[in-house]
Amino acid sequence: MSLLKVNNLKSGYAGLPILRGVNVKVEEGQIVCVVGSNGAGKTTLLKTICGFLVPMEGEIEFSGRKIDGLPTHRIINLGIGIVPEGRQLFPNLTVRENLEVGSYIKSARIQREKSLEEVFSLFPRLKERSNQLAGTLSGGEQQMLAIARGLMLRPKLLLMDEPSWGLAPFLVTELYQTIQTIREKGTSVLLVEQNVYKALQVSDWGYVLERGELVLEGKGGDLLNNPDLKKAYLGM
């Protein structure tokens, strides 16, 4: 059984569809990416999975349960965490306070101290800066904090919206190593990215989204070698 199944999804804003007939699956233990240019509908997909948007058509299943139409807090309680685009931290709270906010649901609060140990092990720099205000961190450190906050929910599936946004190249490499570690520790990952090359490098399966429609899908490595994708997104 797939962990996440998005079937024939149509979604958008104010009655105007952005996504049209999108099908996406994530199996347990996978990293899956949805790549495409800005405006392709990637963020709309994540917002719909999380319940911020109600589908116009189609179905979304998580762990065998239909979740489309459920309010966001109930979807999160089922085990879906999100790292939003632009990080959306609380700049006037400390690193530790931001992390504690991330464990606000009951099941996560019970294991808060264990989760803190785990994210500090994954991101030692955050432990060093646990009493520092989030707004004073560097861009790379803020992205670490955003990911760590998402993990504080102890999700089965972590959604990541443009995680490499605004990062220097060496930090992007470090970020994707971290994403692989997250998967190795038992959390599946669905990420959307404009950084096509890095996303497909680490993904078990990838989807290419153009103007709200899926135009390609396949194993990450296979898509990297697809001549149409190379020409359109990698300049090769």
Give the helix/strand layout:
Blueprint: E1 4-13, E2 16-26, E3 31-35, H1 42-50, E4 57-62, E5 65-66, H2 72-77, E6 80-83, H3 95-102, H4 106-110, H5 112-122, H6 124-128, H7 139-151, E7 157-161, H8 169-184, E8 188-193, H9 196-202, E9 205-210, E10 213-218, H10 220-224, H11 227-234
Parallel strand pairs: 3-8, 3-9, 6-7, 7-8
Antiparallel strand pairs: 1-2, 1-4, 4-5, 9-10
Helix pairs in contact: 3-7
Helix percentage: 25-40%
Query: How much strand?
Result: 25-35%
Low-confidence stretches: none
How many runs of DSSP E, i.e. beta strands? 10
- Average pLDDT number: 93
Summarize the structure in short.
By secondary structure, the chain is α/β, with parallel strands linked by helices. It contains eleven helices and ten strands.
Key phrases:
globular, 236 residues, 4-stranded antiparallel beta sheet, Rossmann fold, 39% helix, 6-stranded mixed beta sheet, 10 strands, 2 domains
Describe this structure in words.
The chain has 236 residues and is of the alpha/beta class. It is built from 11 helices and 10 strands. Helix 3 packs parallel to helix 7 (139-151). It has helices at residues 42-50, 72-77, 95-102, 106-110, 112-122, 124-128, 139-151, 169-184, 196-202, 220-224, 227-234, and strands at residues 4-13, 16-26, 31-35, 57-62, 65-66, 80-83, 157-161, 188-193, 205-210, 213-218. The strands form 2 sheets. It has a 6-stranded mixed sheet with strand order 6-7-8-3-9-10, with helices on both faces. The protein starts with a strand and ends with a helix. The protein has 2 domains: 1-26 and 38-67, P-loop containing nucleotide triphosphate hydrolases (Rossmann fold), CATH 3.40.50; 76-194, P-loop containing nucleotide triphosphate hydrolases (Rossmann fold, 3-Layer(aba) Sandwich).
